[in-house]
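User: Please write out a complete single-protein record containing the residue sequence and its fold in token form, without commentary.

AI:
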Amino acid sequence: MGFFALFCLLFWACKKVGYAANRVILRPLEIIGTITQLELSNTKITKQSLQMKGTNLGEFEELVLLTVAALMDEAYSVAVCDELSAHTGRSVKLGVVHAVLNRLEEKGLVQSQLGEATKARGGKRKRHYQVTVAGKAALVRTKEVRDQLWGRIPSLVWKNG
């Protein structure tokens, strides 16, 4: 990584955690070819957290991530699309699923790998997806928030409806 790129990355990291760039003490904690972990005063920022665009999941992102988790070894875009259509009753477009899978991979919530080429697919390879540790944590966090909010609804609200 060039000096200018590193400077821009560090400046962005400072802004992300709310530090004024000129008031930060920057210390590399681990160097393996490139800086993979930084400490900004008392806040630790890892390479993964810098790469993630956002940690919040949108509704459809959550559904896609849950579907990838449920399909396990059979999680590829067409299967995800079919499973979502079957469970939600919605028409799900393959292009939208591709876009969401790419976004989830950019966020570090899923990882993908190409499978073997098959004659049935005309020599094309399937891209299989797998939920990462960060993806599992995001799903657990989302479920906990939903459960807390559901738990706050008084039971009387449901009896009167």
